[in-house]
Amino acid sequence: MKKILTILVGLVVISAFAGTLYFLYSKSEEVPVTYSTESPEIATIIKKTVATGSVVPRKEVEIKPQVSGIVDKIHVEPGDIVKKGDLVARIRIIPDMVVLNNAENRVSQARIKLANAIWDLERNQQLLGEGAVSESIYQAARLTHDNAKQELTSAIDNLELIRKGTTARSGETSNTLVRATIDGMVLEVPLEEGDSVIESNTFNDGTTIATVADMDELIFEGKVDESEVGKIRPGMTLLLTIGAIEDERFDAVLEHIAPKGVEENGAIQFEIRAAMKLRDDIFVRANYSANADIVLDRRDDVLAINEVLLQFENEEPYVEVEIGEQQFEKRVIETGLSDGINIEIVAGLTESDLIKNPDSAVR
User: Fold this and answer.
1) Are residues 184 and 231 located together in one domain of the fold?
2) What is the pLDDT of residue 352?
3) pLDDT at residue number 173
């Protein structure tokens, strides 16, 4: 029995020793490293810079009154389409009392002069029939009468203009009627009926009654940093992304670059302007914020790889191409345009090659 027990203990000791040796051997054995591979793809490479700004109408005007007074009636609201000459608002004039009093006095004096001219004309006409005065004296009296009549008409018109802003003879032509000056859409009506307005003149811009813009012609206005402005030129293509319109992009053509920069937050910015190409199926509102990708260069349908696959030796680019199961060979390549993620392959690779990703090591 003792002999059997001794044998069993020996076997346990030997097994433990063998297991320890196997464990230490397996731990010391180097685990092989494997790499993932990727193939070149046909892609479009676009090198671009970004400008921030907004979409605004090319033609936007503020409609202002030609007389001061009170807004009596507003005939439009935001969103309405108007034609040039359409009525926008009507102004009720509040006349200056001194000016009004002078105009009334002028009418009274003109009536007196006309009454006197009528009496003088009638008297000279009677004397002419009796042969007591010459024809020239009668014609002078008639001229005085006509001038007095015209003066009364002018004084009455002036009084009506001061009181109402229009005359009976002018009909619908009146500077109290504010009309649209262009065809377009009413974007804003900042006033309400009853508000006071100031006329537009040499010394005052006047009160804006409505803003009208041509929404069929929009432009992108943005700014580009001085480090990028030297890379762009008029005629370049812009790809606009509007924050309020998801998953849609609009084409635009760069038409203006400001010759002078403006300092903003410690950096010099140059204003740019681009003509936007609208689409019939999407309505773009004024003053939408937008980002513009300015296409500096472009390659369509070229062989390209992800830049993470590139390696460099003495500034010469190369990749490692798989020639067998996890076996790779170095291959020098010629590269072209890069967009910061993908890079064009000019020579050295084919679409069927498998390229080692050096950052994908797995043990």
Assistant:
1) no
2) 86
3) 46
Please state, in angstroms and rounded to a whole number, the distance separating the CA atoms of residues 250 and 241. 7
Q: In which residue are the tokens 């914020």 written?
A: 289
89 and 180 fall within a common domain: yes
Residues 293-306 have pLDDT tens digits of 888 888 888 899 88
The strand pair at 210-213 and 184-188 is best described as antiparallel
Phi/psi region, residue 315 (left: phi>0; alpha: psi -120 to 50; beta: rest), is left
Residue 21 lies in a domain: no
Nearest-angstrom CA–CA distance, 208 and 62: 6
**276 and 229, same structural domain?**
yes
Clarify whether residues 83 and 205 are in a common domain: yes
Q: Count the neighbouring beta carbons within 10 Å of the beta carbon of residue 245.
A: 17
Which residue stretches of 63-96 are H helix? none
Separation of alpha carbons 128 and 145, rounded Å? 16
Residue 111 has a CB neighbour count (10 Å cut-off) of: 15
CATH of the domain at 274: 2.40.30.170
Q: Write out pLDDT tens, residues 55-100.
A: 999 999 999 988 888 888 999 999 999 999 999 998 887 766 666 6
| CATH number (domain holding residue 191) | 2.40.50.100
| pLDDT of 154 | 83
How far apart CA 53 and CA 107 sit, in angstroms, is 59
The total domain count for the chain is 4
Report angle CA 137, 143, 144 to the nearest 5 degrees.
90
CATH number of the domain where residue 343 is located: 2.40.420.20
Segments in the chain below pLDDT 50: 172-173
Task: Tell me the residue range of the domain where 239 lies.
Answer: 49-57+215-297
Asked if residue 4 is part of any domain, the answer here is: no
311-313 vs 342-347, strand pairing mode? unpaired
Distance of CA 7 to the CA centre of its chain: 94
Q: Are 108 and 239 within one domain?
A: no
Count of Cβ atoms closer than 10 Å to residue 321 Cβ:
19
Q: Which long-range contacts (CB under 8 A, 24 or more apart) does 258-263 make?
A: 261/226, 261/229, 262/223
Q: Which two tokens stand for residue 113?
A: 């002069």
- Say if residue 78 is in the same domain as residue 102: no
In the numeric block, the tokens 């681009």 are attached to 274
Both 337 and 265 in one domain: the answer is no
